[in-house]
Automatic annotation (TrEMBL):
The lineage of its organism: Bacteria, Bacillati, Bacillota, Bacilli, Lactobacillales. The chain crosses the membrane at residues 12-38, 82-102, 109-129, 135-152, 159-180, 200-220, 232-252, 291-312, 324-347, 353-373, 382-402, 414-432, 444-466, 843-863. It holds the Pfam family YfhO. This is Copper ABC transporter permease. It comes from Vagococcus silagei. The keyword Kinase does not apply. The keyword Endoplasmic reticulum does not apply. Keywords: Membrane, Transmembrane, Transmembrane helix.
């Protein structure tokens, strides 16, 4: 008897193994069809995966190998709270798999992690379904595959950190079910905790959804409501408290760095219509994950039919339909009502990848489908057939009666496949209860049909990503790695452990600093220090709006010096004063800036009286440099260049020094050629500044001077395009070409020159008072010997997590213009130490221990074997999953 049970248990868990590996196999095959596999030339990096997730995982790999602090990174736009970055991008149990990869092979790491997460979602749903639904194992496996490969997960699979949520959602719902069965709440605690520390953003969405689910369960179990409230809320509370180890520092970081909520400006969401729910339930309905998309809700045709059956059949009580239907209705309304839509997103409008909560609708569909399917019997075939026919009609109407451009993403192939599968399901389900033998084999056949449907939809979704974003070539990521890494290592040796910064003029992505382990300026991240980025924008580095981006490109060499840019890596000659080549590797050269300043500079208290103008970055540069150098010098001059030639360009003066450049022939660049006389000893730039950033539509400027070509997207990078350094008076000719849009309006281009003699004098003055820091992970050390009290100005982003100590005694820090760290240093010889810990981390650790201890004590006290025996009489087998 015992042996038979073991065989049965082993057989059941064999379906669990299949629930993991079948979605993995389907993903593997579809990726393979796209030319994506382990070591393939085409990588899994699409959309933000190339610029963000690959580099952030590489940075986490550096942490695991002891090369970087887990709390702070210097390799992110001057410096960043890395603990906060982890909480949004890198949390969870899957990320540490990068340990087994070199950073050069991160595309393979993300490929593997994506497959593992998809498979884990299937396994988690199988575990939930086998304890929840009275269905045979083949049917449970069918639902598990459908869940793992739902459109939301696959269409947004490049956003790898969101996939963790799909793993924990069914386990959380199962955990709530177990509470109503008077079982231990351990699963719920672990699932909540793992969800919250994996991604607090999706943790909020699932937290709200699971609370609504719990309220529905209370509504259906009114007699036992009092007995279930305490276990649920105590479990949810202790899991939430425990997760404060990551969430609390993140909340404090977001609060202190100026993250703002989105204002409500409309009632109805944009781009949505009444037919969306029908259209997005067809096989292969991929529109876009950019702006203007509608929710991804497809999770399979069988789940859709059985979800509808759930509401039709009289075998399920009206109370249940009201309880669970209310949750579905709330999510449905959230697709159309903007206040509800924003609520699910934490009152912060998403930047593309819209309706990020739509997976909750899909889960509700498949959950109710399971409840409906277990009630399905022979006499219900007419309901199945009738529902399927109505759906076929609705699918056809959605395609044929709406404007062609409205659902242009629904191809005739997609419609035909949807109808074909509906017909096949009708045939199968009409025979589903024609004897046990036939029923068993039809369940197997139904599984293969549903898996085939999931395969086709996955193929459509991944091809949609390919068309929408493109999967980047591995060579774009990996080929430059050896050369750049070698030059970074040379720069490291050149500086003898003194802190320095480096920037690439031919970067692989905007987040190269994370990957290669050097400090720079550029960054593209939802987790950022908005105050430091805003100050950098004031000083000429572009960081507009919410400071999602900060770019190094197209600023003056004076700011290079101030922010310690000691090295540039470039494929072309740099042509910047003070820079010279010190090494070459492959296509790249390493340049060294002899005028780069260290991390700290001494000045007086007049620093705090400076008010840098928001709209005059050269004026801001001048004011700050004069303060630090004790000078009153003008560094910049302005020269109007002479236009000598234009190609394919209609030039329209707009007044107030504004000019509009329109193309004469479409899709051909607007090219302008200028002459200018540059005085001796000048570093020259052409200033290109758009009049309205919102109207650029991806416009780029290509500036060619002295045989060097610089191309930049106008709205992302700075405005000062380098024309070169001129030791002698020179008349030069340069070209500016605008591409990417039919027209572009800018302030009339002006040549800006920097007097390098005045610039050198200022730097030499500052160097007499500089403070060299040695940096070790989350610490920075320096020594000073002062003849009078001074203010130590640093180019470290101001953050409340920094602690400054002088000779071991803590001193107060103060922000300069909200963005940079400063503090007072008394006269005399001193040892200075700066250390960083994320604000709230210590309290977060205390919360972790408190939460785990409280929950453990609760479980031991209320769920010990003795109390379990006492309560066994109150638990019947009918309460195993839900009230009826």
């Amino acid at each position: 008897m015992r042996q038979a049970r073991r065989k049965t248990k082993k057989k059941i868990w064999g379906f669990g193994v299949a629930a993991f590996f079948i979605p993995v196999l389907i993903m593997f095959l579809v990726y393979l069809s796209l030319g994506i596999y382990w070591g393939s030339e085409r990588s899994v990096l699409a959309s933000d995966a190339f610029a963000q997730f690959s580099n952030f995982h590489a940075s986490f790999n550096n942490v695991l190998h002891g090369e970087q602090s887990i709390f702070y990174t210097w390799n992110a736009s001057l410096g960043l709270n890395f603990w906060s970055l982890i909480s949004y991008y890198l949390g969870g149990i899957f990320t540490p798999l990068v340990f087994f990869f070199k950073n050069q092979n991160i595309p393979d790491a993300l490929y593997l992690i994506t497959l593992v997460k998809i498979g884990s979602a299937g396994l988690a749903f199988w575990f939930y379904a086998k304890e929840t639904f009275k269905l045979n194992q083949w049917s449970i496996l069918s639902l598990s595959v459908s869940y793992a490969l739902m459109s939301f997960s696959i269409a947004q699979s490049e956003v790898i950190m969101w996939l963790d949520a799909m793993v924990y959602l069914p386990l959380i719902i199962l955990g709530i079910n177990r509470i109503f069965e008077n079982k231990k709440p351990t699963l719920l605690f672990v699932a909540y905790f793992m969800l919250f520390v994996s991604n607090f953003y999706f943790g909020f969405m699932i937290g709200v959804f699971s609370f609504l689910y719990f309220i529905a369960k209370l509504f259906l179990n009114k007699k036992e409501a009092k007995k279930r409230v305490v276990p649920y809320f105590l479990t949810a509370f202790t899991a939430g408290i425990s997760s404060m180890i990551l969430i609390l520092p993140s909340i404090l970081d977001l609060k202190s760095n100026g993250e703002t909520l989105t204002k409500l400006t409309m009632l109805k969401t944009e781009a949505t219509s009444a037919w969306d729910i029908i259209a997005k339930n067809m096989i292969g309905s991929y529109d876009t994950t950019k702006y203007g998309s509608i929710p991804f809700i497809y999770i399979g045709l069988i789940p859709l039919v059985f979800c509808i059956f759930y509401f039709i059949t009289k075998k399920i009580s009206l109370n249940e339909k009201i309880a669970y239907g209310s949750i579905m209705a709330f999510i449905f309304l959230s697709f159309y009502l903007d206040p509800l839509n924003l609520f699910w997103h934490g009152m912060h409008a998403p930047n593309m990848f819209l309706f990020r909560f739509s997976f909750l609708f899909s889960f509700t569909v498949i959950m109710l489908a399971g409840y409906g399917w277990e009630k399905f019997e022979k006499e219900d075939s007419i309901y199945f057939i009738g529902t399927s026919i109505i759906l076929i009609v609705l699918f056809v109407l959605a395609k044929l009666t709406t404007a062609p451009e409205h659902f242009d993403f629904i191809s005739l192939e997609s419609l035909a496949l949807t109808i074909l599968f509906m017909i096949l399901y009708i045939l199968l389900m009409s025979l589903y209860h024609q004897g046990k033998f036939l029923m068993k084999h039809l369940a197997v056949l139904l599984f293969f049909l549903m898996a085939g449907e999931a395969f086709l939809n996955t193929n459509f979704m991944l091809n949609g990503i390919l068309d929408d974003w493109n999967y980047a070539s591995r060579s774009l990521y990996s080929d430059p790695y050896k050369s750049i890494d070698s030059l970074v290592n040379r720069a490291e040796k050149e500086n003898e452990n003194n802190f320095y910064r480096l920037e690439s003029l031919d970067d692989v992505s905007s987040n190269d600093t994370f990957n290669y382990g050097y400090s720079g300026i550029s960054m593209f991240s939802s987790v950022r220090n908005r105050h430091s980025s805003g100050l950098l924008d004031t000083l000429g580095y572009r960081s507009q709006g919410t400071n999602l981006n900060i770019r190094y490109d197209n600023n003056t060499v004076m700011m290079d010096s101030l922010f310690g840019i000691r090295h540039n890596i470039s494929k072309q000659p740099v042509n910047k004063f003070g820079y010279e080549v010190i090494e070459s590797k492959g296509e790249y050269q390493l340049y060294q800036n002899s005028l780069a300043l260290p991390l700290g500079m001494l000045t007086d208290k007049d620093l705090y009286n400076l008010k840098l103008p928001d709209t005059d970055n050269l004026g801001s540069q001048t004011m700050l440099m004069n303060q630090l150098s004790n000078l009153t010098t003008e560094y910049f001059d302005f020269i109007k260049p002479k236009l000598v030639k234009s190609e394919n360009t209609k030039i329209i003066p707009k007044g107030d020094q504004k000019v509009l450049y329109q193309e004469k022939k479409p899709d051909i660049g607007k090219k302008l050629t200028f002459n200018v006389l540059v005085p001796a000893g000048q570093q020259a730039y052409i200033s290109i500044f758009p009049t309205d950033f919102g109207l650029l539509d991806g416009s780029s400027a290509i500036v060619t001077s002295q045989g060097v070509t610089n191309r930049s997207q106008i709205d992302i990078t700075g405005q000062y395009y380098n024309l070169g350094y001129f030791s002698q008076e020179s008349t030069i000719q340069f070209t500016v070409e605008f591409t990417g849009s039919p027209e572009v309006e800018v302030i009339e281009p002006t040549v800006v020159t920097l007097d390098t003699n005045h610039y050198q004098t200022a730097i030499r003055n500052i160097q007499q008072k500089d403070v060299k820091f040695k940096v070790d992970k989350r610490h920075a050390y320096a020594n000073v010997n002062l003849v009078e009290d001074q203010v130590l100005f640093t180019t470290i982003p101001y953050d409340k997590g920094w602690t400054a100590r002088i000779d071991g005694k803590k001193v107060k820090t103060k922000p300069f213009e909200k963005g940079l760290l400063t503090f007072n240093v008394p006269k005399g010889k001193h040892d200075i130490e700066l250390s960083y810990l994320p604000p709230g981390l210590n309290l977060g650790f205390a919360c972790l221990f408190l939460g785990i201890a409280t929950f453990s004590g609760y479980v031991l006290f209320f769920y010990n074997p003795q109390s379990k025996r006492k309560s066994s009489n109150t638990n019947s087998s009918s309460s195993r999953r839900r009230s009826k």
